[in-house]
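Weekly modeling sync, notes
Attendees: S.R. (lead), two postdocs, one rotation student

Agenda item 3: backlog of single-chain predictions. S.R. asked that every request posted to the team notebook include the full sequence so nobody has to chase files. The rotation student volunteered to paste the first one in as an example of the format we agreed on. Action items at the bottom.

Example entry:
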Amino acid sequence: DKTKINSIYIIFTILYIISIYLVGAFVGYLKIKIKIEQTIYLILLLAIIEIFRYVLITKASKSSNESYILSFILIAFDVLILSSSSPTNMPNTITLIKLVLTSAIKNAMLSYTTGNFTYKPCILFSLIVSGLPSIAPIYPNLGNYITIVLLVAYTLTIFYNISKPTRKEEEETANEYERGFLYYIERFALVLVIVIIFFVSGVFKYSISAIASDSMFPEIRKGDAVIIEKADEKNIAQLEKGMIIAFKEGEQVITHRIFDIEETDEKKYFITKGDNNPTKDVTKKTKDDIIGIVRFKIPYVGYPSVEISEIKNKNKQEEKE
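Predicted structure, as returned to the notebook:
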């Protein structure tokens, strides 16, 4: 049903726009200088590409080389559009890989829609994803990482809804699904989300923190997350040289290793140093500065939080300038 497909695209496109602008409230917005000629050219180009996709897919055979050539051209075009509209501080190689994978997912969904239904909703999708960052007067300063996450979620949500089986088929497979692999995956994901919320809240004995620099490289890398046991009188008394602690320094939370301990009649001072830093930290720490002790490391989990923080800091610097 083409009408139903159009409705699905419109509904989730509206939700996507709302989502990116809500995220923009946290990371900031960019003012876009709109050039009418370029805007018209971009809109026409995106529409022509989707019509061309429709003609090629409906006329060519599934094994046709033209389909593969078109896919490579569209992926290259997407990578160019995304990289130019969402500048990022990530390494070029990582950025390229993520953009190519995102574009492949997006074009697979558009080709599926065009081949099985119609090309019209695909034009809407392309205008929003590829065109909106260039033609909107104000656009969220998302960066490549957040752009990719939201775009993949948007794409997969639409694909899931347009490829859902009929209600009758759903009823026939319901019992099998309840006993199936996806059933357990969903429940595992739910438990995982609850556990993460508990850790992030900081209410409990353990909390989780993202690492924003390579000062502890190679033991802990930028983008890793660490599990921190909250400091109390008992574990503070057990601190030794070589242990990794988290402490406050201004508004920041720093994770460094205890390099030395100095004791006086009144207080105990902890001298800290990042493994990758050439010198010790300037300020000596007391037990009041220590947030907790690092117990575990989870590679890469903290990267989204680090990316958002870097974007927010960049926006603050631009506002000061």
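Discussion: group reviewed the output briefly. Residues 84-91 have pLDDT under 50 and may be disordered.
Action items: rotation student to repeat for the remaining queue; S.R. to check formatting next week.
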